[in-house]
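Hey, can you fold this one?
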Amino acid sequence: MARFRNLMIIALCALAAFTAVHAEHLMIIAVNDTHSQIDPASDGKGGVARRRAIYDQLRANNPNTALIHAGDAVQGTLFFSLYRGEVEYALMDTLGYDAIILGNHEFDNGMEELAAHYRNVDAVKISTNYDFSATPLNGLFQPYWIKAVGDKRVAFFGINVNPVGLIADMNCENLGYRYAPSVADATARYLKQILGVDYAIMVSHIGYDSYEPTEPNDSLIISQSHYIDMVISSHSHTTIKPGSGKDRIANADGKMIPIGQNGKSGKLVATYDLDLETGEIVYNHIPVDASWDEAASRYTAMNAWLDNYRHGVDSIMNNPVATSARFMKNSSHALQNWVSDATIEIIKELTGFKSIDCAIMNKGGLRCDMPKGTVTEGVIGSMFPFDNRFVVLEMPGNELIESIRLMCGRGGDAVSKELSATYNDKGELMSAKLNGKNIDPKKTYIVATIDYLANGGDYMTPMTRCKRLFVDTQKYGNHILNYVKQLQAQGKKIDAKEDVRIKKK
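Sure. Predicted structure:
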């Protein structure tokens, strides 16, 4: 009998110890920049049902969890182009997100539509450095969210990107912005010293590093901070591999602060196992791949609901319109070159202008890869999902040079074959040429672009100072679709070389 009691005591102690271990940990699950990737991408990775299976398994194995989306849940596939967020926002609560923050693409259809969606989303909506008081989003956000686990409290706060130069003015009218580095550590300090939380975690949509050199990033904020304990990063589409060295950054006191990010399109799920007693954080990645298909197939109601939307997407995705001579990754120079050169041909036909000196497009506007072989209408629609219009500008040479200088500062951009430029290790412009000749700052040039850039998007302020000779009324993606159909009718293939037109010397 005594032996039985001893065994019972040992078993109860083991169970208590097991429970205590879990009670002392918070499993933070995070994704970022999922960009409407409802079904697996062309490489077979990602997919919302698979992600749900991962979330559910993690929650089943961990009594204390926090599921976070770090912004840009939308834009990038036909699900958003056709249904304007109806699918993605409805899935927020189905997947069980505890807290979400805004990315820049959440604004793509304007704040009225965004507010209409967000009113039906139960997840806590966090923003610390935006002022929504004069916008349709007023009252929908809170500056932080505190998760209690036993006697410990973990605070999450949201840091958003500067809308100027990134979000179209008409889509963020009256939105107030406070400079991210000024807000971030001050908020963490307030949460810890005034509200008495144990940990302050920054959920950020400003990027691990900066697309525009003058804008702040997560690395900078950590280096200047004293009170931030961890950063869930997004926006830059960086895959920060656990244990790579990039996943820890020294703060102002020399303490190494964990930071993680999962690339884009929901192909990875991040986990951060926070030991609430010691503050130790173990960061890991879970691939969203076919190994989760069996578990994902069990969500019969969700998949049946999605099928209603898939029919519309598939009708476009499966319609062949052109042929590509080669595979071109969306980030490749070849694809950037192709769309820039095609823009000149399209603009000439649209406007009747006999001479277009060059075209300047944005590499960030290319949202998917160009496959080799058959190209469908869905590929073109996914590649150019934005509601932008072609514009022709009359640009003084000095403004054209300044535009090229800005592109050099971020490592180049998409330009037509007439343009070439070089820059040094610091991103400083060294030479800018048009058809092999130095651009004359006193001469006037005719430049084809899109209204996003002409309005100052991607920080292209010089374009806002130029006279507009033509502004189209249709989405530029529609013109590109017609262009590739014409190529097909002429027996021509989509093709371009991997030439670097703006290069580091």
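Confidence is low (pLDDT under 50) at residues 1-22. Let me know if you want another pass with a different chain boundary.
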